[in-house]
Amino acid sequence: RSKFISDWLKAIPMAALVAVMIMVAIGTFNWDSLRNIRQYPLSSNIVMIVTVIVVVATHNLAYGVLVGVLLSALFFANKIERYMAIQSEFNEPENTRTYTVTGQVFFSSADKFTSAFDFKEALSKVVIDVSQAHFWDVSAVAAVDKVVIKFRREGTEVELIGMNEASKTLVDKFGIHDKPDALDRLNSH
């Protein structure tokens, strides 16, 4: 049966197939996207234009889709990074500071996570509440390790509370802050 279809397709002139392809492209293209380009977010416009440029330059739709997906992922990561926040509250009688982490912690927000803590403050205890946060990758786990170990290096007791199951699994698997040789392992990185 495939031989029949193959023979039948060979009989169609290439110019006719190209014409059909061009008409399908013109018919399915959303022309309003060009007219209303100023109303769309800049990141969406960049993805659209770069994808078209890559497809035209390489004559390969797969490369255009790959570049579009990568750009979209980077813009998404940048957008989500902004929503991570850390609030702190000081309990003077107990000389304890509680940091409440909200949002998504991953490769893009790990540095922001680490820089939100004051390691030089003389405290008896630090509580890091991550019940409103989620840790996505090994960069986030490394950031948790860095924070916990730096506080311990300053002589501060650290308690990590409220971690959800998915984050806990990741931290248990890749984290070193709760291992006996944590300080040596952090220094070797």
Question: What is the strand content?
Answer: 15-25%
By secondary-structure content and strand pairing, the structural class works out as alpha/beta
Gap between N and C termini, in Å?
61 Å
What is the overall pLDDT average? 83
Number of distinct helices: 9
Overall, the morphology is elongated
Topology pattern, helix = H, strand = E: HHHHHEEHEHEHH
Helix percentage: 55-70%
Main pleated-sheet profile: 4 strands, mixed
The side-by-side strand order for the widest beta sheet comes to 1-2-3-4
Radius of gyration: 26 Å
Count of strand segments: 4
> Segments where pLDDT lies below 50 for 5+ residues?
none
Sum up the structure in keywords.
single chain, 189 residues, alpha/beta
Describe this structure in words.
The chain has helices at about 1-10, 15-30, 30-35, 40-60, 60-80, 110-115, 140-155, 165-175, 180-185; strands at about 85-90, 95-105, 125-135, 155-160. It is α/β, with parallel strands linked by helices and about 190 residues long. The protein has a four-stranded mixed sheet. Helix 7 links the parallel strand 3 and strand 4 (about 155-160). Helix 4 packs antiparallel against helix 5 (about 60-80). It is elongated, with a radius of gyration of 26 Å. The chain starts with a helix and ends with a helix. The model has no long low-confidence stretch (mean pLDDT about 85).
